[in-house]
Amino acid sequence: QRQMERLVIQLLNQLQARLSGQKSRLKEELLQYVSEHFSDTSLSLERIAEQFSLSPSYIARYFKEQTGHSLMQHVDRLRLARAKQLLRETSLSLQEIMDYTGYIDKNNFIRKFKKIEAITPMQYRTLYQEKIKELLDAPEKGPQCPNEEEPHGIL
Q1: What is the helix (H) or strand (E) element at residue 24, kind and residue range?
Q2: What is the phi/psi pair of residue 33, to 5°?
Q3: What are 91-140's pLDDT values in tens digits?
Q4: What does pLDDT average to over the chain?
């Protein structure tokens, strides 16, 4: 009797460990898939669920349970992070940035951006460029030498 109980407990522990490993692997696979496809305008909960042969409701519940936010919120975060990078590092138009980040509707994109950043995408770009110019134009504030004609250790 006791030997049978130990065997059942051991089997249940092994099963739980295997399921836990599969769940962890699923989370990593979902994160990887979304990070590779977030710019696809047709990316949706249904499409992701289909890709993993799981139901949309299971994927949604599982992702939120694992990360604390919804799968589509994660997609939006990735898209907005990429949009901010493109705004800072390129001179692409707003439409081109939307094309690169998976947004279709300009008003929706601006609304989501403004909700997170409290300014529009173009205001974000302008402020960033002004900050960079300000930093580049600012005189160096290094240590001052007592004798301006002959700095210590340079001549």
Answers
A1: helix 2-37
A2: -60, -45
A3: 999 999 999 999 999 999 999 999 999 999 999 999 999 998 888 887 76
A4: 85
Taking the C-alpha atoms of residue 50 and residue 141, their distance in angstroms, rounded to an integer, is 57
What CA–CA distance (Å, rounded) separates 111 from 108? 5
Residue type, 146: P
State the Cα–Cα distance between residues 141 and 135, nearest whole angstrom.
11
Structure tokens at 134: 């300000």
CA atoms within 13 A on the CB side of 143: 6
Q: Which residues are within 8 A (CB) of 151 and not within 5 positions of it... i.e. 6 or more apart?
A: 145
* Contacts for 51 with CB less than 8 Å, ≥ 6 apart: 33
Q: Model pTM?
A: 0.72
State the virtual CA torsion across 94, 97, 98, 102 in degrees, nearest 10.
-170
Q: Shortest CA distance to 103 belongs to which of 69, 75, 74? A: 75
**140, 77 in Cβ contact below 8 A?**
no
